[in-house]
User: What shape does this take?
Amino acid sequence: MSSTVERAFQAALYETADAALDTGASLLAADPAADAELARRGAEFVAALWRRGWQPADVARIVRRDLDGVHARVLATLIRAQSADDRARGPRWSAQLEELDEPTAEPSPRADRFSHATTVLELYRLLLRLPALEPLQERQSGPRSGRRSDSRMLTRIRALLAKAEATGFPQEAEALTAKAQELMARHSVDEALLDAQAPDPDAPGACRIGVEPPYEQAKAVLLDAVADANHCRAVWNEPFAFSTVVGFEADLETVELLYTSLLVQAQSAMAKAEAAQRAGGRRRTKSFRQSFLAAYAHRIGARLGEIAAAAGTQVTDDLLPVLASREVAVTAATDRMFPETVSTRLRGVTDEAGWTEGAEAADRARMHSRPRLP
Assistant: This one.
């Protein structure tokens, strides 16, 4: 290792004092010849994170939360550089690479070498302190996974949800979201029947979905309700701002789509509710928004459960064993990944107006779900 990089790391990465960080950055700023070694070590840190169960979107989410945009761009540069030497991974991983922030190969013209070195060392310090996560099963590209990813059905679902998010009319949003859920149900059943004919040895899988502040607890409840309604299981990791959703690939895709859409619809409805409250002379607060989203999540979960129970009689006898075996597989996979989980109580729900408005917004966003299995 370059002696400059070694001394900088000893000063900055293993100490917490700002003075130590300044010392390391000064050493690097004074030695341009150390830049290549510094980048190489960063790629090694990234590769070590992949071995500890992290994925690109997970790391990017934490860096954006705990540091700044400039750190996220440096991270994107490191990840893309490391990916050239990485082994082949699945389509979900490739999609995460494409969604990274625009990379930064060199310091900004407005950033001096000392500032850039400080940014790099702050990033490396964070990367080194991230703990191991539960490894996710990586799905490789193949005939079936490619068919799922390119499904025209999913394209139609995305289009319907996009229209639901964009419309200003609650009834239209309700109808569009319900139609999207109907297509999701059909898509899942098709996949279940296909799997019965040619079982997929890699299924079920898992993905992580960001559940970020503010009001992350209510968002986690909403994601759990959507996952449960779509034959998946969600486990929330509060410290690192994500939930791991376990399920078959077709169901994971629909959970991501529906959760994202419902969250967008909730934010839109909450903004309108706040505007109405302000027009009435009442000042809305953080407690209003927390209560609104908590009620929205609670009511969405209740309505999905009602719809699932009502639809139970529509499942044909020949399909029940197929769906039941898939649910058993999802439960077993979740238990293997998370042998110990704890429940938590929803906090901060104290605003009655917020709760009422949130429940009404959830009713307007109601949808049909697949039947719950016996």
User: Anything to note?
Assistant: The chain has a mean pLDDT of 79. DSSP finds 15 helices and three strands in the chain. The radius of gyration is 23 Å.
